Fold each of these.
Amino acid sequence: MKKIQRSQCPLANALDVLGDKWSLLVIRDLALGASTYGELLQAPEGIPTNLLADRLKRLQAQEIVEKTAYQQRPVRYSYSLTEKGNGLKPVLLELLKWGLAYVPDTRLPDAVLGKINLKSVVRNQSDLD
Amino acid sequence: MKKIQRSQCPLANALDVLGDKWSLLVIRDLALGASTYGELLQAPEGIPTNLLADRLKRLQAQEIVEKTAYQQRPVRYSYSLTEKGNGLKPVLLELLKWGLAYVPDTRLPDAVLGKINLKSVVRNQSDLD
DNA sequence: TCATGTTGCTTGCAAAAAGCAAGTCATAAA
DNA sequence: TTTATGACTTGCTTTTTGCAAGCAACATGA
């Protein structure tokens, strides 16, 4: 069932996993502290529930996201980024900076401003921690 | 027919433009020196010609790419990155570094190695190890 | 002049993915 | 017993993707 890779280019391979409109938004929300399925559904972009389920499966298969049951009866799950997932934070930050710089009518919500260190315009892995 | 934006998040807006499997690959090739339609078609990933035409149109509409006729009789066109398009290079670099660091069986072709600031790639790659 | 080739696309169509609404299942609380 | 919540799944329509062809404007060679 595994697809063969389009090329050995690391960028093409990254896009095979992340090249859609939702995956990086899910990763954004996990990076900003969301952890349950319900919280991820609350994102302002309104991801359809079947797509959220699909993306979480794919991201788990890629070991970018992990799922753990944090309680039993009733069982409740929490999602979080793996180390590989955390490795995407510099990507999120560069895309964010590009959007802010070049796409009109974009801004960071105040709630997010507190979590990101935009002063360090240089990429810094701990910016989104 | 301009779509309304999903949210004001700069990341979401960036993904509305770039969130697919081909756009950033086209931008990669332009950044690496490709300039004609035919050259862009030669990318190892094998982009279908109708999708290349579509992506070039969309990227021009977003002012990420510009098209100029560099000769008449016969008319020949060259594509290049605008300043907005060049602003995506840090994004390409971070995605590339992530792919190199975390996706198995990826590598940079020798032809590309000469064109990229290898120091920054290597330095950050070791940070991720 | 005619056949052939090259560049830069467009068109048609089947298959895959996205998007929307509704349904399901295991509890838990009222 | 009814209602509610979390975490999804299913069904169906619309949109996008991915081939394969086709086409127009020249250029070149016989």
Amino acid sequence: MALRRSLLLWYQHQGRELPWRNIDDPYAIWVSEIMLQQTQVKTVIPYYQRWLAQFPNIQTLATSDLQTVLKAWEGLGYYTRARNLYKTAQIILKDYRGIFPRELEKVVKLPGIGRTTAGGILSSAFNQPISILDGNVKRVLARLVALSDPPAKAIQFLWDVSDSLLDPDNPRDFNQGLMDLGATICTRSQPKCLLCPWLSHCQAYQQGKQNQLPMREDSSPLPHKKIGVAVIYNNAGEILIDRRPDKGLLGGLWEFPGGKIEENETVEECIKREILEEIAIDIEVGEHLITLDYAYTHFKVTLIVHLCRHVAGEPQAIECQEIRWTTLDEIDSFPFPKANSKIIEALRNNQP
DNA sequence: CACCCGTGGGT
DNA sequence: TACCCAAGGGT
């Protein structure tokens, strides 16, 4: 088929050189695939290289502890990925003698690995003829067939297209080439159609719709929460941090305690109330340290941070897993979300 | 199946 | 600024 041949030829000359290309270690390829979920290549590369140096094989990962794994993932986001990578390493060690399985039915059952990631791993590591449908492929195919619906409404159809196009003789290079095409030529905005090997096959281009496709879903505005945050010092000059529950947002990461500012409540009142409710201690809320705006996928937050002083009571882990007093020197050993890293940075700059 | 889950970069 | 969205999966 001309589509296959032209893509493979293009990939041979114009494909990207990436650290997880031209290797055959399914573990390393698996790690790359997980890190690349919803995350750009440029962001992933340094994490990938550090990760393989720290956890060179499945056994090393499986026998580490979760906090060490989360620390290595710190800043990458979607922390369930790290938890599932760790969990799956233990499953592979126990059920598959530490050898990454080659059967699709087994691979898709592993935590954190869905159909696209499984196809990515098996086609890349073992050259198995299994198709993929990631963000790049959805965009490329939506333009190729001039899809009139948003891709989310046509997932089954797009899988069928991806299946029918896949080159059974060169599945590895075909899948990788398809993703490279989406990443470098068939980009979201200003696609470089004149450089595209599929120019003459692309229905969107023929209809002059390449800048309008793929169609978008209409989205509702994100809710905005204001959070009061406490950096609490004790008489020894230590700082109180807590570890979040394993499930949910930023699961298992450490943070400075705080909570949502209610209506008709000042920031100071909120912080004092939240700390009493969550940690059962009485504090004195002092000067403002920093205010941070942060956008997550489904809401926005403003963190208003105050320096506080412990007055009375023994801290209790009521709405978290664990509480510790620590110091600015030791705090780097705990995994924190990015928003909290900026608070730590502000504390350092605030030091006398 | 609609919603949840981080962070950084582009427009 | 505000919004979109990246090598998606879990629930």
